[in-house]
Amino acid sequence: xxxxxxxQSLTGKLLLTIGTLMIIGSxxxxxxxFRHQEKELIQNSVKYGYSFVDYIxxxxxxxMLTFQELIIQQxxxxxxxxEGVIDVRIIDRQGKIKYSSTKQxxxxxxPKESPICLSCHVSGKPIKDTPxxxxxxxxxxxxxxxxxxxxxxxxxxxxxxxHAHSKDQRVLGVIEANLSLEILDKSIKKQGIAITVYVxxxxxxxxxxxxxxxxxxVSTPVSMLAKGMERVAGGDLDYTINIKRKDEMGELANAxxxxxxxxxxxxxxxMEWGNTLEKKVQExxxxxxxxxAQLVHSEKLASLGRMAAGVAHEINSPLTGIVTFxxxxxxKFPPGTQERxxxxxxxxxxxRCSTIIKGLLGFARASAAExxxxxxxxxLHSSMNIVRNKADFFDIKLITDFDPALLRVKADSxxxxxxxxxxxxxxxxxxxxxxxxxVTTRNISENNQDFIEVVFRDTGPGxxxxxxxxLFEPFFTTKPVGKGTGLGLAVSHGIIQDHxxxxxxxxxxxxxxxxxxxxxxxxxNT
Amino acid sequence: MSKGxxxxxxxxAIVRTSCSRTLSPEGYEVRLATNGxxxxxxxxxxxxxxxxxxxxMPDMDGIEVLRIIKEKWPETAVIIVTGYQTVDTAxxxxxxxxxxxxxxxxTPDALISAVTEALTSTQx
Lengths: 526, 124
Description:
The structure holds 2 protein chains of 2 kinds. Chain A is α+β, with helices and mostly antiparallel strands.
């Protein structure tokens, strides 16, 4: 399994390919070198063999010419006893062995099919009378080099006194020598082994070096890259590959790192975008919800206003009757009587109804204002002067902090005064006649629009969270029965809204409340 | 000898009665009309020193009554009685020649003083 896997790897494939090529190359190299050396050696042996045969011929020449057979036999025996010589024979034209270094077969006639005869007498071809050599397998492990040298007729032969040969004979016989190739074979074998060892050693060293080079140059960086890819695919975008090289692998690693960091950047941007989008959607949703609530509130107030106006109109006439007839009846009883006091209660309660209805009317008529450029500081001053001498304000410290450069607003000053008086009276009621009321004015800018801001800050007990939501609803009041109608803030809210402004509350329990009024301001030159 | 002749135009019976019960004991001669048309008809039959008219009535509103009376009998003083007083209608009424306006519900004293003042100033 592991072997299969490593063979499938890039390094494995490279090693297999290069290794196979190397083995084939080395084998071919080894084979041709071996063959070349063998050929060289054999050629040298043949050369030596020829001179050896020539030497035999020359050594026996005298004996031949003088026809001394014994001397010839002795010479051949002497030559045949040399190392590496197996045997030397001289054979005549008829194939009869005349002399032999081993003395074996002397006098025998060789058949025409014997190898020595066939070397010249090939059937169907002219007789070959040139020296020839051949190699054949010996009885032992080594080979035998066989030489056949024809002995040519020459004048000294046919003119010799023995008259053994006539003049027209061309070849008189052959000299055959069999030389042992044992030393040569041994040397070739030795060299072959040496070359094989060298080639194997070379192959081994090359393979190891190749393995190391491939491991360092290819396998390690490739597996680092693969690991990196795996990590990045798994979401780890902080992963970097540390290949400090200037080759293609180094470039690849740098490109990979750049890609990862780009990916990380893109992912971060995307996430950031997603987050802000969510936040923006949330903000927008809240704004829409607020606007919707405001709209519902305004609609509610408007329909309440219409209803209040209708009710006020209908109720005022019966109230006129009650008040008028109350007074008429009252006059019938002398002062101090119980009846007169009872009627007084009726008239008072009718008047209270009248006050409530006036409040309702004020709430309903907020749209019918006469607007002019107004200095809010002045309106505030006059509002405060109205309350300053009232008994309810004796123990209240009034602090004013007005911006002298306050921009003007387009407003109905009597309606503004109604709002401001409402704020001041509410603050005094909240503080139960004791505390500090701070009124400040200043210019502010919101969304490139000029506004003026009026803040009424009291040191009362603050407004509980539950009441905050209902604060501007008509008829909501925390004051004792008979003291407040619950219309003051609703009317104020209506008036400020009609002026394009806003009214808001900031409150902290036991520390006090601030009513903040914002009205759109007009630049003097516009 | 009556202190003056007063015409009360109002669609609400209780308001008419309240006015006559308040003003008659004070020595005024009070006539009552239930709507604008009836009021104008009575005005054309006899001369009134003062007309008290409601602002909102079913057939003809107080402003219209005021306009016609001021057109035909400019010396007659008109006081607008309203249960739905708004700044713009009050301003409109004054512009058309009304002497004053009083808000419902009014007390007998408020009505008497408004009527007295109007008659005193027009008789001068």
